[in-house]
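Notes from the 1:1 (GR / supervisor)

We went over the backlog. Supervisor wanted to see one worked example end to end before approving the batch request, so GR pasted a single chain during the call. The sequence is below; no edits were made to it. Supervisor asked that the structure be written out right there so they could see what the output format looks like.
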Amino acid sequence: MTWNVEKIRRDFPVLSREVNGKPLVYLDNAASSQVPQIVIDRGSKYLEEEHSNVHRGVHYLSQHATNAFEAAREKVKRFINAREAAECIFVRGCTEGVNLVAHSYSKVFVNEGDEILVSQMEHHSNIVPWQVAAAERGARVRVIPMNSSGELVIEEYEAMLNERTKMVAVSHVSNSLGTVNPVKEMIATAHKFGVPVCVDAAQSVPHFPVDVQDLDADFFVFSGHKMFAPTGSGVAYGKREWLDKMPPYQTGGGMIRTVSFDGTTYAPIPEKFEAGTPAIAAAIGLGAAIDYLNALDFEAAAAYEHELLEYATSRLADIEEVTIIGTAAEKASVLSFTIDGIHPHDIGTILDQQGIAIRAGHHCAQPVMNFFDVPATARASFAFYNTREEIDKLADAIQKVIEVFA
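Structure output shown during the call:
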């Protein structure tokens, strides 16, 4: 099908505004995507007409809010093809989700001398929780290396797996490089050793269809705010056979079965991992974002985004002073680059004057910056509402940056 990008853009109110007197060109989708009107309206409806705490309430508003909250969980289950909705735990975002998995899993399954494998291209949110868990349990973190193209060295990964390995933590798509990792194959290899895999899916779920059963992922964590939903929403999926054996991440109201001063018993999943009042409006908004994505031809959206990435790569590769960081054969939605002699923060500042929003910095991936021996990169990241014309504006603005510093 032909992707009608102009029709899609009308769904996102912010895309019609101006920044610094210029039409907004929003190319910071890897940090946070924009929100369609249907999601904004659904959140407003909850706050205006339905607001109440969920679960246990017998009155109308509480039951109505509970139904909407749990309907959102069911939408998540279908969207990622989980076996059951109870395996989908609501969290505030990918960071909280990985912390939940690392904390609760390691308490039971990681002991002194064990090893946790973490890829070299991970976001800090999929590094630091595992470092903390390893330190607490007397284990160690080992790094799955990557090559100069920004691809994991799978042969070395396979050689690292052994009887001491207790977890593999890997991103589906790198937030700093755009590399699409072969997680299905990596999971299958890990499972030969009985090792579970935690997939950071923050950058994959917004950009192409995923199926956790097909991947056979043990844990699969993502944020709502990168997939057209409100901030404060996210999901930590886990197979029931793991979640049932893991202790709670947080404790308090909502996650108990019984409490006395002699002891406490916990509710079953997902409640066991959802202590306290959840981010109700955010979760309902995530459900609305899934409705929005389901109404699209998501595979056509993914194909359109891939065309944008290829076009942007070609445009920037033609600029002599630009170096693209991350040239994997399989990429999605992210284009990181440097310009000779110009700090990425200066690039971002000048582009902002042209109304162009990109990200500049280490992207919470300092090990990646160290590997490529750069302090930071400029990063343009795309969604299905971006256009070729916006990429042309980006390329023209980069030329202006070079002229300013010449």
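Supervisor's comment: The mean pLDDT is 97.
Batch request approved.
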